[in-house]
Amino acid sequence: MSSTLRFQVVGEAFKKHPIDVPTPKERPSEFFAKYVFTRQKMMQYLPADVFRTMVDVMDNGTTLDLKTADAVAAGMKRWAMELGATHITHWFQPLTEGTAEKHDGFVEHDGKGGMVEEFTGKQLVQQEPDASSFPSGGIRSTFEARGYSAWDPASPVFVMGDTLMIPTVFIAFTGEALDYKAPLKKALFAVNKAATEVAHYFYPDVKKVICNLGWEQEYFLVDEGLYAARPDLLMTGRTLMGHDSAKNQQMDDHYFGSIPERVAAFMKDLEIQALELGIPCKTRHNEVAPNQFELAPIFEETNLAVDHNMLLMSLMKKVARKHGFRVLLHEKPFAGVNGSGKHNNWSLSTDTGVLLHAPGKTPIDNLRFITFIVETLMAVWKHNGLLKASIVSATNAHRLGANEAPPAIISSFLGKQLTDVLEHLEQTSDNEISLKGKQELHLGIPQIPELLIDNTDRNRTSPFAFTGNRFEFRAVGSEANCASAMIALNSAVAEALIDFKERVDARIAEGMETLKAVMTTVREDIKTCKPIHFEGNGYSEEWKQEAARRGLNVEASCPLVIDRYLDDASVKMFAKVGVFNRPELEARNEIKWDTYTKKIQIEARIFGDLCMNHIIPVATRYQSQLIDNVHKLKEIFDTTTAEQLSHDNIALIKQISEHTSYITTHVDQLIEARRVANRIDSEREKAISYHDTVAPLLEDIRYHVDKLELIVDDELWPLPKYREILFIR
Ligand code: ADP
Ligand code: MG
């Protein structure tokens, strides 16, 4: 693109007006879930006995028979066709980013030469997409199995455009999971079972423990014209070059500032559509960086929350286009300003309405609270490396440890009150606890004020912070499927709770009173998991050293962090809770390494092209202009004067030469490094090679490109600059 084009695109972006988004006539409570086949609609569209069977399937996970499925499909079809649906799709979450779908029309031959709308129970329950093009890490070839998608009745079907969308899991015929949802459901099942059993020590009538997830989605918006003029943004989702804007986030004026009108219109549109699809959007605001925003719904059951996040991300992309924007979900689209994360607010609660991670009013409630907090910490301590592995990616790597977002070490912040309580419990001895029946139970725990629920004691540097009635896993990337983190966390917590119960039961078997056995075991664990507890500044250099001394995982290289999935402790844990077997873990790691490699590979290719075809020619052209000027000065002045006058230009000419020759030789090195890496067979070794040799060169060369951006005439510069992209008018 020539510079005149650049100015044209920038000019147009700045002239754009917000699209008018009419306010719906109904209130949000009325249009909420308009396009979702909710229980209410099931009641309306399904025969009474079929509805009852479905409730049992949804609530208790009983199996669906084909006759019921047929009846459900018939009701669904009637409802969906009233909303204008003509197609159905099984919607699933393969191990790539995002979601996948394959659309089939409702139409079938009617046997009389015509067509009829048809949708059977079999079509609802199971489909066989062409699985060969989705990553499987070799599972399908190893087991010679095909993949199929199976309906997940726990997540309601919905209509989007002309299509009835059916949330599904995606598995191989031999049973191995090929997606995120199948293992997520297993992990949720495991944590439900383990937590219910532990909850029984305190509340015998608990039947089920629900895992809650409230994600906060951060994102950037950029004008579509400017986006299209940046091949790097277009192909990789981030800018691979670009000098800091003179003004970025240093004034802190964007955070909670007023939302630009064009963005407000986008947000309004997005929220309406999200609410209609049953996503309970609640919060929206500006984020720290310019053009950065956040959307958060009210928390939901995790399986549904994950689907809703995936749905929201695709909806965002669609709505953004309508408003002349592109949404950037990449964790680090711009150097020098904050990246985007997706805080995962996580907690467990019972079917009887007890939030297990919240303190309560009675001593029993508080012992329950401490138990679930400490066992969560045990899980995070034992599997801190694995938890990090669950959130690392080539894109999130730019954010972790980059002095703005969670550091690349998993630790937990608890706040002063909870820290005091744990310390107190650790230091008091058993004798101080009198256990004369439940009512007179005295735990020696200073009464935990209910105030703790509103705990605003914040430490933004902690990757896993306790925030009053939940933990906030902040290291999750903005682009990621939350399921990855939720699988690892819930599996690890399930294991910790199982292990806890075994030790408590052993004490009870030896004659110890139940609550005393609980207390004694909790006390033991407070000591054990202490290394994970850190209240200080997670960005500091001292913490890195201290964390290593504590035995926490401090590895920062993404391909090496992925290894943690195959640690003995991880493999045993996943097997014990029934979530993954070793071949599945191995297969998934192959995919992770391969994805890492491909991301860096694409970046390196685009970057090389941009350097050689955009930057070097422009820098050289500007340099020639300067050289011309020096020659011309010589023509009209005597030698001494000419030398004096051309002094600055000669210095610039030299600087340009230094930068361009650095860029040229190092782009050659970059190509060579890729060539060497590409020859490696092992996915792991290849990813390591890309991490160690290719990725650093990108940063290295970028420095020189960004310097040239400051030197070369603005008129000539081919790419929209940060200051132009980052401020929506
Ligand atoms: P913040 O101040 O961290 O932005 P918000 O009030 O915006 O906090 O909440 C962030 C998310 O946490 C929301 O989705 C909210 O519904 C969710 N949340 C609140 N309480 C819990 C809980 N106990 N368990 C899980 N998620 C929760
Ligand atoms: Mg938060």
What does this structure look like?
With 729 residues, this protein is α+β, with helices and mostly antiparallel strands. It has three domains: 148 residues, Roll (Ubiquitin-like (UB roll)); 377 residues, Glutamine synthetase/guanido kinase, catalytic domain (Creatine Kinase, Chain A, domain 2); 130 residues, Four Helix Bundle (Hemerythrin (Met), subunit A) (Up-down Bundle). The chain is 50% helix and 12% strand. The chain is built from 25 helices and 17 strands. Strands 9, 10, 11, 12, 13, 14, 15, 16 and 17 form a nine-stranded mixed beta sheet that branches. Strands 1, 2, 5, 6, 7 and 8 form a six-stranded mixed beta sheet that branches. β7 and β8 form a beta hairpin. α21 packs antiparallel against α22. Bound molecules: adenosine-5'-diphosphate (ADP) and magnesium ion.
The domain count comes to: 3
Distance N to C terminus: 23 Å
What's the gyration radius in Å? 29 Å
CATH class of the largest domain: Alpha Beta
CATH fold-level assignment of the largest domain: Creatine Kinase, Chain A, domain 2
Number of discrete helical segments: 25
Number of strands: 17
Major β-sheet annotation: 9 strands, mixed
> Structural class, please?
alpha+beta
List cofactors, ions and other ligands: adenosine-5'-diphosphate, magnesium ion
CATH architecture of the largest domain: 2-Layer Sandwich
What's the pLDDT, averaged over the residues? 90
- Overall, the morphology is globular
- What percent of the residues sit in helical stretches (DSSP H or I)? 40-55%
What is the CATH superfamily label of the largest domain?
Glutamine synthetase/guanido kinase, catalytic domain
